[in-house]
Amino acid sequence: MSKWAGIIIAAIVLLPVPAIASAKDKPDQRVQAILACGSISSNEERLRCYDQSILPLKEALARGSMVLKEKKAPLALEGAVKASGHWGGSSLWVLFDNGDRWSVQPTKSHRDPPPPGTMLKVKRTLMGTYWVSGPKWPESEAEFLGHEQ
Predict the structure, then answer these.
(1) Average pLDDT in the 49-62 region?
(2) Of the four listed, 60, 87, 101, 114, which is most buried by Cβ atoms within 10 Å?
(3) What is the rounded CA–CA span in Å between residue 122 and residue 103?
(4) Which 8-state DSSP code applies to residue 16?
(5) Best CA proximity match to 92, nearest among 129, 126, 136, 137
(6) Which backbone phi and psi does 48 adopt, to 5 degrees?
(7) What is the distance between the alpha carbons of residues 102 and 96, in angstroms, rounded to a whole number?
């Protein structure tokens, strides 16, 4: 296969990706209907709108065809370490001062957790993986675990 054929095939495969990403970010029609009610100024009409638009959402949730899920994403891509420690095997856990929790796979040369106060930066790759690094802390693969409650 020629170089150009490979490029054309890759372009065709990747063309729908932005459309999929933008569709993923748009709220469901049932949610959009509820949100639209908020712009109605009359209390009675707004309440009537909410009452009418909530029914399809309640039915979808009851059937299980719709599930509410919080988007799992870090609050920031840098922060100071609030606490850290070992977490089974060679994994480490790190809690940032903003409440973001991470699991970190350190390099073989650096197995100790970063001490509190260490400033770390997180970068996300195009494939969606995270890497954390900082002063005296080599770049290590990380997984976002959620926010401290």
Answers:
(1) 87
(2) 114
(3) 12
(4) H
(5) 137
(6) -60, -45
(7) 8
